[in-house]
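so the lab meeting is tmrw and i was supposed to have these ready like two days ago... anyway. pasting both below. for each one the top line is the aa sequence and the line under it is the structure tokens. i havent really looked at them closely yet so no promises
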Amino acid sequence: MQWFLFTYLGESWSQDGMRLKNPELVQWAEKVFAQEDVICFDIYANKRGAIDPDHIRQVRAVREVLDKK
């Protein structure tokens, strides 16, 4: 069995803003990855399909953690 978490990066589901600061999110993701578990992020995209730049930075910060593994 593998633990799977679907969570949001914005103020709420499909919203812009940031629920967590990058260091907090990265620290949390490291704990999840250490258990070989999975995270799926809900990110905000506007009507034109552009992703919130803060969310892109957060996903990249988490990716850096994965790249170290």
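ok protien two:
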Amino acid sequence: KAWGEQPDLQDELFIQYQYDSTKIDEINKYSINPKLQYWTNQTNTGIIETSSETWMHPFRSNQYLFTEVAPFPWVKFPLKQGKTWSSSLSIHDGWGVWANSTLKNTYEIVGYETVVTEYGELEAWHISSLASAEFGNSTHDFWYNMELGFVKMIIKNYAGQLLQFELTEVKKRV
């Protein structure tokens, strides 16, 4: 169904989180945005899947808040090595120290390659991206498989912290 924030543009995506609540205080010590610390078991957000692009909000709750200041996962079709595109993102109130800032994002398709995930070896397009902001630069490398979507993501925020997501399982719809 349509996502309430932009119903004409984005579909709704539900994300469920599991975490150990006894480790929250320790994890929060490493937050690069201490004014913004909240934890949730689930959230909904938006995704775009059309014949010209696939784009999604990243996992950006709990300890993943800093993905808000890295380029969002996004591919623009057709995919070919060397293709580039750019965008900007205005971050509004409610995002702590990042509020009222603007990110300048650039994307480049590095190539089509074999990527290793817990799910197995997959052929995917490797996209490298950079977000530039007044508080620093963050990078996001991700791999996009035409059948499975975003199968691996490596984000390095402006404070040097690394975060990696990768596909571990595919469940068939019943």
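from a quick look at the 2nd one: The mean pLDDT is 94. Strands lie at 11-16, 42-49, 53-56, 74-76, 84-91, 101-117, 120-133, 136-145, 149-156, 162-166. will dig more after coffe
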